[in-house]
User: What shape does this take?
Amino acid sequence: MKRFDYSDGVLIYYLPRELDHYAAEKIKSGSEKIFDENNVEYLIFDFEKTSFMDSSGIGLVTGRYRRVHDKGGKVFVVNVSENIDKILMMSGIYRIIEKKETKEDIIKDMVAGGCYE
Amino acid sequence: MNNTNEMTVRFSGNAQNESFARMVIAAFITGTNPTLEEVSDVKTAVSEAVTNSIIHGYRKKSGQVTVYAKVTGRKIYIEIIDFGDGISDVKKAMEPMFTTGPEEERSGMGFSFMEAFMDKIEVESKVGEGTTVKMWKEIGTAGRQFE
Assistant: This one.
């Protein structure tokens, strides 16, 4: 299964069914190179397949957020189920990261923000 | 009729066993007739405690994690036990956002999540001897005040 997709400054993580410490470590080490070699302007966490997440998932999201935000990039979460929403809400992550219904909504944001000028 | 049920599992402190621990506890508590949300709450709390044992208790060392659980009626009691490094300052470790590894992208929310998802938790720890996390939750109590 494809874990992430990168092109033209947009990185999408396709998160696994269970986002725990084990999965988070794999995702981190698997995508380190992308951050080292590119300027990620838009980072999208796609929770479509995810039904379980614990605080390790929060660590992954906030850690990646810091890397992207420091360089002026934007971070989003999409396809968040009720279950995952509860965890994200409790963590206070919505203070720094925006939730969108779908990836299409983010593309609208990119166009509005002049990313595709 | 004796309505108490107990179980113990012990497994290697490897990260891939985190999901095993969640599956075991979810299966064990089905007799309490929990909602999906309650199952998810217990799984999250157990996942946090087991992850702590693996990351902090055993770090790079090997060791075993024990999960003991007891169900009495709709009351659940769980212990997560390791014989790892232990915690020198439990109070500090339980503070929200406290983490020994910010550079490892840890959130520092493990204990906060355990407290949020269970009715009560207690942590016993001795440096060099290990840590036991005790957790209690009664199923079917959420929203009872509205009945």
Chain B is about 30% helix and 30% strand. Chain B touches chain A through 24 residues (CB under 8 Å). The first strand of chain B starts at residue 4 and ends at 12.
